[in-house]
């Protein structure tokens, strides 16, 4: 079922236009169009290595945990946690999903600064995806990495109360985000 679900997601993503740079590279096209074969091949590898128990734990249980963590971002993180930014929705920062979903659980941060490569904006907000991006930046494989500016953070902070200033601030923020460099 996981495989079919992923295949549907792949078919949907094949229509997306926002990864044009990746689509031009043969290596990523190969990964994209052969993904189901990788999953099947990995299952065969696990079965050969450790039999049925390793297949169940390494492919079945692992996929279920991964999918629940991923879906938890849009369900748990819109129900339980802390809201530190004024985002106009119910998004929350949830440390448990932050751990399980590799930093994506700092979801109020994400909604406040959707352009930001970093979700865990505080040093104590564990965000392994950000650590990988920092590494890729350090070795020159990632460039133009975007982060929210202090001005943007001040404008999104929960203590902003005046409706008029919020509206004008959000317009300025959107303008900054569309130009957005850190
Ligand atoms: Zn959300």
TrEMBL record:
GO BP terms: namely: very long-chain fatty acid biosynthetic process
Mention any Pfam family matching this sequence: FA_desaturase
Q: What family does this belong to? A: Belongs to the fatty acid desaturase type 1 family.
UniProt topology in membrane: Multi-pass membrane protein
What the entry says about domains is: The histidine box domains are involved in binding the catalytic metal ions.
Q: What is this protein called?
A: Palmitoyl-monogalactosyldiacylglycerol delta-7 desaturase
Q: What UniProt keywords are attached to this protein's entry?
A: Fatty acid biosynthesis, Fatty acid metabolism, Iron, Lipid biosynthesis, Lipid metabolism, Membrane, Oxidoreductase, Transmembrane, Transmembrane helix
Its cellular-component GO annotations read: endoplasmic reticulum membrane
| Fatty acid desaturase domain boundaries | 21-132
Q: In which pathway does it act?
A: Lipid metabolism
| Cofactor names | Fe(2+)
Kindly list the residue ranges recorded as spanning the membrane.
Answer: 35-57
Q: List the InterPro entries hit by this protein, alphabetically.
A: Acyl-CoA_DS (IPR015876), FA_desaturase_dom (IPR005804)
Q: Where is this region: Disordered?
A: 159-182
Q: Where does the UniProt annotation locate this protein?
A: Membrane
């Amino acid at each position: 079922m996981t495989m079919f679900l992923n295949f549907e997601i792949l078919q949907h993503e094949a229509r997306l236009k926002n990864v044009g740079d990746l689509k031009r590279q043969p290596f990523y096209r190969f990964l994209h169009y052969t993904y189901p074969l990788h999953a099947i091949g990995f299952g065969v590898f696990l079965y050969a290595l450790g039999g049925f128990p390793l297949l169940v734990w390494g492919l079945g249980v692992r996929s279920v945990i991964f999918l629940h963590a991923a879906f938890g971002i849009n369900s748990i993180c819109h129900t339980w946690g802390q809201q530190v930014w004024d985002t106009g929705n119910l998004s929350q920062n949830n440390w448990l999903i932050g751990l399980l979903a590799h930093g994506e659980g700092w979801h109020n941060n994400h909604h406040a600064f959707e352009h930001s490569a970093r979700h865990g904006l505080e040093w104590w907000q564990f965000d392994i995806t950000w650590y990988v991006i920092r590494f890729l930046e350090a070795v020159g494989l990632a460039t133009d990495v975007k982060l929210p500016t202090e001005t943007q953070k001040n404008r999104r902070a929960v203590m902003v109360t005046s409706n008029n200033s919020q509206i004008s601030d959000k317009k300025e923020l959107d303008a900054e985000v569309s130009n957005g460099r850190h």
